[in-house]
Specification:
Low-confidence stretches: none
Order of helices and strands: HEHEEEEEEEHHHHEE
Mean pLDDT: 94
Shape: globular
Helix content: 10-25%
Radius of gyration: 20 Å
Largest sheet: 4 strands, antiparallel
CATH topology of the largest domain: Helicase, Ruva Protein, domain 3
Strand content: 15-25%
Distance between the termini: 29 Å
Structural class: alpha+beta
Number of helices: 6
């Protein structure tokens, strides 16, 4: 599933291309995504000019002034930009044709979403999909103290706590394992047991891990490609993720694999003590 780094890579790749573009036509071939694609897209978007493209967590926010298009890539969704419309491929569900080119949404599993939010529905931040998201990891307020205060009553394992996204968004399965490895924290430790010093290391590790992933174009394990069709390479730099049984890059101990709520967790038992 595309996580924050992958979505940010898409946002950066599309930003300069789509900002200021005017929609000519919207074609919806398949409405049955995670939620039905609104009929309003085909009627309200033509003639609208895109003012800007932002991101909140794993959601892309296309600001058209008269409303915001909220896009989630789900498990296998991609947003590709084409100067000229290419031949249709399987699972090409939505086309947004502009005066600059074509934005095409493809999603084999159809777990993604394209929703339309109008100003009269209230502030965008209050949308049900956005209202309960945690702080952005690159927000200047996010630090060790933030993690420490948020974790005091949390009995759940720290990795599961990070994945929940209520304290900080964007630390998906790959990046939780990698951040905890960089911080020297075992994924099974209860969040409330973290000291302030460990929280400070973890906050720094989260930022460093996500920044590195964005610089490397994200992680392309299965379906993810950027808006130009290129893949990411962060998976080649992973210290623990996907390396079960291989020697730790720091101490040479074998990397371990366990399951936490049916999610694969990788760690080094030497570098990440209890």
């Amino acid at each position: 599933m595309p996580e924050l780094p992958e979505v940010e890579v898409v946002r950066r790749g599309l930003g300069a291309r789509v900002a200021g573009a005017t929609v000519a036509r919207v074609q919806v071939r398949e409405r049955r995504l995670r939620w039905p694609v609104p009929d309003a897209l085909a009627s309200q978007l033509p003639g609208c000019t895109l003012r800007g493209l932002d991101r909140r967590g794993k959601y892309l926010l296309f600001d058209f002034g008269v409303g915001t298009l909220i896009v989630h890539l789900g498990m296998s969704g991609t947003l590709r930009w084409f100067g000229e419309p290419p031949a249709l491929a399987p699972h090409d569900h939505v086309d947004i044709l502009t005066d600059r080119g074509l934005l095409r949404y493809n999603d084999p599993r159809r777990f993604g979403a394209m929703l339309w939010h109008r100003p009269e529905q209230g502030p965008l931040a209050s949308h049900p999909l956005l209202a309960n998201l945690g702080i952005e990891p690159f927000d200047e307020r996010f630090n060790g103290q933030w993690l420490y205060q948020a974790s005091r009553e949390r009995r759940v394992a720290v990795k599961q706590w990070l994945l929940a996204g209520q304290c900080v968004v964007g630390v998906g399965n790959i990046y939780a394992s990698e951040s905890l490895f960089r911080a020297g924290i075992r994924p099974t430790v209860a969040a409330r047991r973290l000291s302030l010093a460990r929280c400070e290391r973890l906050a720094q590790a989260i930022r460093e891990t996500l920044s590195s992933a964005i610089e490397r174009g994200g992680s392309s394990l299965r379906d993810f490609v950027a808006s130009d069709g290129s893949g990411g390479y962060f998976q080649l730099d992973c210290g623990v993720y996907g390396r079960a049984g291989e020697p730790c890059r720091v101490c040479a101990s074998p990397i371990r694999l366990i399951r936490q709520q049916q999610r694969a967790t990788y760690f080094c038992s030497t570098c990440q003590p209890r």
